[in-house]
Write a structure and sequence with these properties.
The chain has about 110 residues and is mainly alpha-helical. About 75% of the residues lie in helices and about 0% in strands.
Length: about 110
């Protein structure tokens, strides 16, 4: 069984490779051609569906919708020239910092 990190790394590489794929044969390539706003819309839809799974107290759907949410977020990041590594660096930067303190330090 592959580790969580290995799975995400494989997906990240695949998403980058799909930038040059034929949109007629690749869902990801099709998303890329529709642009960041459409991809962001998909992220929002998946976030709502994730929240709805929680409201329904359905862990099976929560996992499925969470996977869809993470997938579409990764597509959006790649579309912008970013990756989960950028998210990981930000989280590492915040490590040991209270969430309340971090939020208070954000520019208004």
């Amino acid at each position: 069984m592959t580790s969580t990190l290995e799975t995400l790394q494989k997906l990240d590489l695949l998403l980058e490779a799909r930038k040059s794929a034929d949109p007629a044969s690749s869902y990801v390539a099709k998303l890329y051609t529709k642009g960041d706003k459409k991809i962001a819309q998909k992220v929002g839809e998946e976030a709502v569906e994730t929240a709805m799974a929680v409201a329904a107290d359905d862990n099976v759907e929560l996992v499925k919708e969470g996977a869809d949410l993470l997938f579409h977020l990764m597509v959006l990041l790649r579309s912008r020239g970013l990756s989960l590594s950028d998210i990981a660096h930000e989280l590492a930067h915040r490590e040991g910092l209270s969430g309340l303190v971090e939020k208070a330090q954000r520019p208004k």
